[in-house]
Amino acid sequence: MNDQHIASAFDRDLEEIQAHVMKMGGLVEEAIRQGAKSLKQRDEELAEQVRRGDKQIDAMDTLIQEECARLLALRQPIASDLRTVLTVMRIAANLERVGDYAKNMAKRTSVLVHMQPIDGASGAISRMSKEVQLMLSDVLDAYIRRDEELAQDVRHRDIEVDQMYNALFREFLTFMMEDPRNISSCMHLHFIAKNIERMGDHVTTIADQVIYLVTGELPDEARPKGNAVNYELPTSGV
Amino acid sequence: MNDQHIASAFDRDLEEIQAHVMKMGGLVEEAIRQGAKSLKQRDEELAEQVRRGDKQIDAMDTLIQEECARLLALRQPIASDLRTVLTVMRIAANLERVGDYAKNMAKRTSVLVHMQPIDGASGAISRMSKEVQLMLSDVLDAYIRRDEELAQDVRHRDIEVDQMYNALFREFLTFMMEDPRNISSCMHLHFIAKNIERMGDHVTTIADQVIYLVTGELPDEARPKGNAVNYELPTSGV
């Protein structure tokens, strides 16, 4: 009876935290979308909004980390409940990093609007950020539905983002060699592309965490061998 | 009596984990040192060693995360003990990221050795990485001695690293504009410089965590307002 009571109190608390993770994920998605839009439309004001908006994302991360710490202290979860709480903390930390990269994208947009535009670059960056944003949307779905297959799908799509980045890298090199006046803007655009590629890496890490949550194991490539984690209490004395 | 027993078992477990954090920190310091050396001396074999060595750093992070999770499950710490365990997890995660950046530095070294060297660049990068490596060494000292002042000092030194990066950025732009044949190598060198600057950011985050560990509060600039975390159990019923 008491166990039952504790379990459902834990579930209730966790549900509240998960709602915050989803809200945070929505804010990060929006930051990517608006960050890419501000670059494409050379909209300095929108870029400034994205930069300011990152404070809210950071605050959500702090809130979720606090709530998880409090949940650990209050409910003292073990086994899969403990795993869930630690996973939620990691997912929030990764979302925070993606938000940081979106902020950095907006920062460089504020510089780029004062430079000569590079033909085609903002379109390619826009497609790349669109893909990462969809991956993020899907990984949040996978998280809430505990959908391993969808999480695996997200992991595989990161390869495409890496390929898009590599193609852009070569393109920027060509632009710079063709005309030295392109160098400054290409340096900034290249950073934006790299930041988006890193967002993809963090979304992939979230996908790894979702897989871990569902199966109890990280994907093979995500971690060195011997990573089976035992959160159970031993049957013998402590 | 029983409380006493539990407390000292916790301390013993924690000490073991902290020894692993220090070992991991030592590996990361060495990765920065050797990564910078491989770049300066154009030593492809050493770069390859640094790349391979990152697996061990990742494995240490996994080990520490597991040990902390097990400690949470077994000892069910609350209040400042819980804070300590969560802080250790964050410190290890940040060390892992610094190790990743050292690996990336070594990766690009392997490409750069086949290109025309850029005068003066590797010296500047070497000084920058030396500074970050010293910051890391100091922050690990600050962690083990619970030395808030030293942690604050590390935070302030990150400003110098940022300034070094900014100076290098301008230098690379000049090199590229002077001679388009410098563009490829400058793009790679610029990334290395940016990676070292990011290492500095992660070391600063570790310093924040040390300050949090000692004082119970994050430095003002590190976090949005309202971040006082309450890990105590409430006096009223759960």
UniProtKB/TrEMBL annotation, chains A, B:
Pfam families: PhoU. Keywords: Cytoplasm, Phosphate transport, Transport. Residues 22-109, 125-210 form the PhoU domain. Its main location: cytoplasm. It is found in: Cytoplasm. It comes from the Bacteria. PANTHER family: PHOSPHATE-SPECIFIC TRANSPORT SYSTEM ACCESSORY PROTEIN PHOU. NCBIfam families: phoU_full. Homodimer. Plays a role in the regulation of phosphate uptake. Belongs to the PhoU family. This is Phosphate-specific transport system accessory protein PhoU.
